[in-house]
């Protein structure tokens, strides 16, 4: 286990705990992949860590970041915004030069 690569806000941690299939059984695995309108998109899923992933624990939540995504995620903040429309996880990423109109992908 290593130190945190990204910050996860308390609201995001609460939502991750609520969504976790079995608390502590899987990692929250985060990656940045080619795609979306602006060139890069985030993937967040409950999964086992893969060889080479950067791993750490934040309270009860185990987190894994794909090794190839580290440079595009280091220093980012993962937050959760609730509400009737537009609810979901949001990244504040210092490496993003811009985002697409719908906010689901970014340019780096």
From TrEMBL:
A single Pfam family it belongs to is Fe-S_biosyn
The Core domain covers 6-103
The biological process GO terms on file are:
iron-sulfur cluster assembly
Q: What is this protein called?
A: Iron-sulfur cluster insertion protein ErpA
Which Gene3D superfamilies would you find in this protein's record? HesB-like domain
| GO MF terms, alphabetically ordered | 2 iron, 2 sulfur cluster binding; 4 iron, 4 sulfur cluster binding; iron ion binding
| Gene of this entry | erpA
